[in-house]
Amino acid sequence: MTKKLMLEEKNLNELILDKNNPRFAELYDGSDKEEDLIEYLLYTEAGEDIAKSILQVNEYYPDRPLWVLEDDDKFLVKDGNRRCAAAKALQFPKKYGLNLQKFNLTKLPVLIYQNKEDLNKRITQEHATSLFRKWDRIAKALKVYKLFTSGSSIDSMIEIDSSPSDLIKLASFYYEAVKIKSDALKKLLRRGRGNTGGKTIIFERLFKYKNLCGYKFRNKPSYKIDIFDKNRFRDYISAAVDYLKEYPKTTHKTIDDEKKKFLERLKEFGFDVNKKDKKTKIIDQKTKNVVSPLEKKKRKTIKNRPAYERKGIPAPLDKLIKECYDLDYNNFANAKTALTRLSLECTLKYIIENTEYKRGTQFSNSQFFRKAFFNNNGVKKNFTDFTILKNKFTSLIQDTGKKKAFEDFNLDNPNQIIHNYNVGATPINAKALCDNLIVLLEFMLQDKADLLSLLDLEKL
Question: Do 346 and 418 share a domain, yes or no?
Answer without folding.
Answer: yes
